[in-house]
Amino acid sequence: MHACGHDAHTAMLMGAATVMVANKDKIPGNVVFVFQPAEEGPSDIDVFAKEKKSWGAKRMVEEGIIDRFKIQAMFGVHVMSSAHTGEITYKAGPALNSADGFRIQMSGKQTHGSMPWAGTDPIVAAAHTITGMQTIVSRQANLLQGMGVVSVGSIHAGNAGNIIPGELTMEGTIRSNSPDIRNSMLKELPALVKNTATTHHVHAEVNIAQMMPVTINNEELTHAMVPALQRASNGKAKELKTGQSASEDFAYYAEKVPGLFVFLGATPPGKDLSKVAANHHPAFFVDDATLATGVRSHVEFVLGYADWTKTKNR
Ligand SMILES: [Zn+2]
Ligand SMILES: [Zn+2]
After folding, report:
1. pLDDT per 10-residue tile (average), the chain, 314 residues
2. What is the 25 CA–ligand 2 centroid distance (Å)?
């Protein structure tokens, strides 16, 4: 299982839809309920395929959900085991990091480990490449704008300790809380890989998969919705000092219209937060009692947004 709370999110939005449909006469304007297909995956079904097929929020944006329903603002709620039931946390500006992937294939010339001069070594080329990657952020990104991370999580090459293999494949991930840093990392990485490989007489193919942009909560909308969040949580809404390292395809909506994505605590009261399983852990647990706060959040978003736009247009 993905273990992130998708069932809870679906239940909360169903609950909110039930409440709002029953009180249709009290709801100004139109409300679109957008469920989240493909919450568990990246933005494309196969991110490294030549012809990409998107899904989830990216697909819905491509298919015109924003224009079709004349959506003016988007709201989202995600459960988190790092806070207690009924508590809402939010952050204006960058709230969740971008996520992109890369796959690097290096081809050298196989030779025996006793005579490396007779071949070209993709393993040494990869070692230099991985170390070099760590300088993309530390030497080139403007860290006044945010942060960035490049991590290699898989390397496959060779099958005998005394043979230098001809082929190597590695995959990794790129994360940032700044669109500018993200873009510069996506641009710099292929050049660094290719140039490093060339130095070692190895050929490198780099495949970058752009998955999730930085999820940015609109500053003005976020601040305007704080009273709504306090109503939904009985005064238990708190601003976060930093964003979260995870990623969300909600980012695609928030690129098109002002968006606000908030976090809802899901650990029963009294439980020690330092000991609970994080989201995505097999033991991840959502306290059903928090669903009520989630339903209220969705309803309060709608009422709060309608009030706010009324006063803004007055
Ligand atoms: Zn999730
Ligand atoms: Zn998840």
Report:
1. 92 98 94 89 83 90 97 98 98 98 98 98 98 95 94 98 98 98 96 98 97 97 98 98 94 98 98 96 97 98 95 78
2. 36
Contact 99, 42 (CB under 8 A): yes
CATH of the domain at 113: 3.30.70.360
Ligand 2 centre to CA of 296 (Å) is 22
Residue that is last in its domain, among 212, 233, 255: 212
Q: Is residue 20, in this structure, part of any structural domain at all?
A: yes
- Opening angle at CA 157, ends 154 and 163, nearest 5: 150
Q: Which ligand is nearest to the CA of 250?
A: 1
Which range of residues forms the domain containing residue 129? 98-212
pTM score of the predicted model: 0.93
Are the C-beta atoms of residues 261 and 248 closer than 8 Å to each other?
yes
Tokens of 140: 């080139």
Which residues are found with C-beta within 5 Å of the ion, ligand 1? 4
- Ligand 2 centre to CA of 38 (Å) is 10
